[in-house]
Amino acid sequence: MRNLLLLGGTGEALRLARELHGHGRLRCISSLAGRTESPEKPPGDLRVGGFGGIEGLTDYLSAEKIDLVLDATHPFAAQMARHAHDACKLLGIPRAKLVRPAWVAAPGDRWSMMPSIVAAAVFLRFHPAQRIFLTLGRQDLGAFVPLGEEDGPHGNGRWFLTRSVDPPGEGGALPKGELLLARGPFTPDDEKALMQQHRIDLLVTRNSGGSAAKIAAAAELHIPVLMIDRPPLPPGETLDSVSAALSWINLHAV
Length: 254
What we know:
single chain; alpha/beta; Rossmann fold; six-stranded parallel sheet; 29% helix; elongated
C-alpha cells in the first residue's frame, strides 16, 4: 500500500479525501494547518498543525514513509507550497499542486490588480472609497487597521465590513467597522443584499478562485474591486481540478 500526504484546508482537498477514503491501494493522510478553529474534518487519517519548516516536513515524510504528496492548500498558502516543493525534491518524492482556476475579469468589471496585501492597503490610502468590504484571511487584516483611523480623500473616515470564518486571534487587530463571522459558500443574491445593506463602495479580495458570488454581485452593483493577485507557484506539475488530481494520484499509486 502506498502512502499519500494530502496537504489540505480547501474544499477541493476535502472532496479528494472523501473520494480516496477506502482506496484499496492507498493510505491517505490529510494535513490541516490548524488556523481555522472549527474546520470540516476529512475522513481517514488526519494530522493538524505545522511541520516546522522544510526540515520538519522532510523528517515527517521520511518517518511516515510517504510515497507521494498532493498539495491542495489555498492558492495563497505560498510558504507551504514552497516547503512541499523543496522537501519532496530533496527526497525524490512525486509532488503535484492542485490549483483552482483564478477568476478572470469580464468586460465591464472594475478591477484594480494588486500584487500584495500591502500594495492594496497603500493604494486604498488614495482611493475615494469610504465603505469597504474586506474578504481576506484574518492574518491579512492588520494592514488595513491604520486606514480606519484616518479620513479618506473625501473625509468622514473609512468604515470596513470585515468577513472572516474565525475572529482574529489574541492580539489581532481589526480595522474600524463591523466584523461578520460567516462561512461560505454564499450566493450572488446573498452578496448583493449584504453589499447594499452596508452601502459598500469597494470590495477588497484575493484572487482565490472558486465560487465567484461576491465578484458577480460587485459587478452587478458596479462596485470597483481591488483584486490581490496570487503569489507565484514553485516549479512542478500543476492540476486544475479534483478529477485531474485523482488521475494523478491513481497514476502514482501503483
